[in-house]
Amino acid sequence: MSGTQALPSHRWRPSGRKARAILWQGLALAVLAGGGAWLAINTMSNLEERRIGSGFGFLERPASIPIAETLIAYAPGDANLHAVAVGLLNTLLVTVLGIVLATVLGTVVGVARLSRNWPLARVTGLYIELARNVPITVHLLLWYALLQGLPAARSAISLGGTAFLSNRGLVLPAVGMPGGWLPLLAAVGVAAGLAFALHRLAARRQRWSGRRPLVWPWAAGLLLGLPACALAVQGAWPTVTLPQLKGFNFAGGTTISPELTALTLGLVVYFAAFIAEIVRGGILAVSPGQWEAGVALGLDRRRILRLVVIPQALRLIIPATTNQYLNLTKSSSLAIIIGYPDLVTVINSIITDTGQAIECIGLIMAAFLAVSVSISLLMNWFNSRMKLVER
């Protein structure tokens, strides 16, 4: 049709600034890809020159390394994969113990830091400053040196006549279970799940009717009754073996080594100081009006702290505490400096035996990544449950 004008084109044309940005980003990606390819080719070439195989087939070969502490049965000659599992379980043991104990100690110290008792507040403040400003490595070496300075087993410090402390570690009574612990643990797990379900049903009933049914007798019955039934069906009951000094060492009982004790104490004392400051900051972040409201309701200071302030402070405490949990998990790899057979120590021995460092380091990275992500997911779920619900 004559006299009509062509419609303007709407095709995207990058401006000069955008074009330059795209060009530089493309060049950066090309450089990274080229660097990665060069590293891969160079690594494969060096491995071939040294006649070092690649892949994870070495995990099926027998391991020649001894491991002093194991949570599952292990002996030299088992597969390398089994040795890695033993090291991973040792790391998880230290991580769980460290997180639980550091949380308890940090919470107590953080609350005590705000106490009106002047000596208590100053002593806890001094502990926090000393613990936070000394490297974690020094903490571990200090505790290990203190434990090595304890008397020998024949002169061990008696703790009530049933436990003993010496330079060989802490010896405690051993609890055994003929036939294994699996049926009892399964019964405890089922009872805990049912008790939790009862708690949820009671909370729902309270929202509907305004009255909360009495749950704790049923929960206590489940937690005591189901394990007792499992023991009766199994036909066996737990046995306790007390440690006895025979010669130069103790026989019977269970021994917590100085390495495990030093590692746990070092991690707990160090990270509890950071958790204490997080708890203190979370409590101080709650509005002073909440304290005044609690006083107006006739509550004492402890109940105000437990029922009013702490629940509101959790939304600030949990995210920062999660970071400390992750730092504690990663710092457990320093066990190698005091000889505790954690994952890093075991895999380092496998590297020395097989020479396959790249695959072994990849296993370490994957294991710590999985543990850290699991802790983050769990704490994020807990944080979502603790959020204040606005009406």
In short:
The protein has 391 residues and is an alpha+beta fold. The protein has eleven helices and eight strands.
Give the termini distance in whole angstroms: 64 Å
Give the uncertain stretches in residue-range form.
none
Order of helices and strands: HHHHEEEEHHEEEEHHHHH
Q: Structural class, from helix and strand content?
A: alpha+beta
Number of helices: 11
Largest sheet: 4 strands, antiparallel
Please give the share of residues in helix: 55-70%
Overall residue-averaged pLDDT value: 86
Could you say what the CATH topology of the largest domain is called?
Answer: MetI-like fold
Query: What's the CATH class of the largest domain, please?
Result: Mainly Alpha
CATH architecture of the largest domain: Orthogonal Bundle
Q: What is the total domain count?
A: 2
Global geometry: globular
CATH homology group of the largest domain:
MetI-like
Q: Report strand order across the widest sheet.
A: 1-2-3-8
Query: Radius of gyration over alpha carbons?
Result: 29 Å
Keywords: Amino-acid transport, Cell membrane, Membrane, Transmembrane, Transmembrane helix, Transport
Domain ABC transmembrane type-1: 88-379
Protein name: ABC transporter permease subunit
Main location: membrane
List keywords for this structure.
391 residues; alpha+beta; MetI-like fold; 2 domains; four-stranded antiparallel sheet; two-stranded antiparallel ribbon; 11 helices; transmembrane helix
